[in-house]
Amino acid sequence: MSDNQWEPVIIRKKLPKGVSAKSDKVVNAARRQGLEVETVTKYGAATNKHTGTTLNTAKLDQESEELKHASLSMDVAKLIQKGRQDKGFTQKDLATKINEKPQIITDYEAGRGIPNQQILGKIERAIGIKLRGKDKGQPLEPPASKAAAPTKTSKK
Predict the structure, then answer these.
(1) Does the reported pTM lie above 0.90?
(2) Within 34-134, where are the H helices?
(3) Which percentage of the chain shows pLDDT scores above 70?
(4) How far is 94 from 81, CA to CA, in rounded Å?
(5) What SS3 state is found at 85?
(6) What does the alpha-carbon distance between residue 24 and residue 31 come to, in Å, rounded to a whole number?
(7) Short-list 75, 135, 128, CA closest to 97
(8) 43-62 burial: b if 16+ Cβ within 10 Å, else e
(9) pLDDT for res 34
(10) H/E stretch holding 120
């Protein structure tokens, strides 16, 4: 029975792959075992900043004297407030109806908002008053109905 040769067997865990391979626990364990660990920090990692240049930013860059964004005129602000109150909406109701934050409605009604044509269009449709163009304050005409439009008939 002395013929048996027993050799020591070493069982090692496989290193984790993917996201778990990058956790602090795994990295520290690898360092303790003497394995080579490479850590690289990505530029801008762990930040939630998506800065992009807009038209207003370009204008401000070119402006040399007074650095101010255009703000909503007070007559438009009063029209928004009047139209909202005529419909019986609170600022929060109007904001919910147009899928924007209540702070935007507050800023627009105070004349502090930076004019955004998409938001103004949504507000126009919600309160039924024109806020842009020559005929500000006039009722917004409903879009032409599809029934009035000529229909094509197909021949079989």
Answers:
(1) no
(2) 55-62, 74-87, 91-97, 102-110, 117-127
(3) 64
(4) 10
(5) helix
(6) 11
(7) 128
(8) eeeeeeeeeeeeeeeeeeee
(9) 82
(10) helix 117-127
